[in-house]
Amino acid sequence: MTARTIRPSSGLANVKYEIRGKLARRAQEMERMGYDIISLNIGNPGAFGFRTPESMRLAIIENLKTAEGYCHQKGIFPAREAVVMLQQSRGVRGVSVDEVVMGNGVSELIDLCLRGLLNTDDEVLVPSPDYPLWTAAVNLNRGRAIHYPCLPENGFVPDPKDIEALITSRTRAIVVINPNNPTGAVYPRKVLEEIAALAEKHHLTLFADEIYDQVLYGEAEFTPMATLVQGSLCVTMSGLSKVYRACGYRVGWAVFSGDLEHARDYLSAVELLSSLRLCANVPGQWAVQTALGGYQSIRDLVKPGGRLFETRQAIVDNVRRSKYLDVRLSNGAIYDFLRIRTDALPEIDDQQFALDLLEHKHVLIAPGSSFNVPYRNHFRITHLPRAEVINDVFQRIEELFDSYANGREPKSRPAPSLKAV
Question: Could you point out which of 49, 60, 225, 270 has its C-alpha 20 to 30 Å from the C-alpha of 196?
Answer without folding.
Answer: 270
